[in-house]
Amino acid sequence: MDIKSGHSSPVMTDSPPISNSRLTIRQNRLPYSSAAATAISQNSNLLLTVPRKKTGILDDVKSNGWLDAMKSSSPPPTILNKDNLTSDAADMTYREWTQLKYPSALSSFEKIMSFAKGKRIALFLDYDGTLSPIVEEPDCAYMSSAMRSAVQNVAKYFPTAIISGRSRDKVYEFVSLSELYYAGSHGMDIMSPAGESLNHEHSRTVSVNEQGKDVNLFQPASEFLPMIDKVLCSLIESTKDIKGVKVEDNKFCISVHYRNVEEKNWALVAQCVDDVIRTYPKLRLTHGRKVLEIRPVIDWDKGKAVTFLLESLGLNNCEDVLPIYVGDDRTDEDAFKVLRDGPNHGYGILVSAVPKDSNAFYSLCDPSEVMEFLKSLVTWKRSMG
Ligand SMILES: O=P(O)(O)OC[C@H]1O[C@H](O[C@H]2O[C@H](CO)[C@@H](O)[C@H](O)[C@H]2O)[C@H](O)[C@@H](O)[C@@H]1O
Question: Which ranges form a coiled coil (predicted)?
Answer without folding.
Answer: none
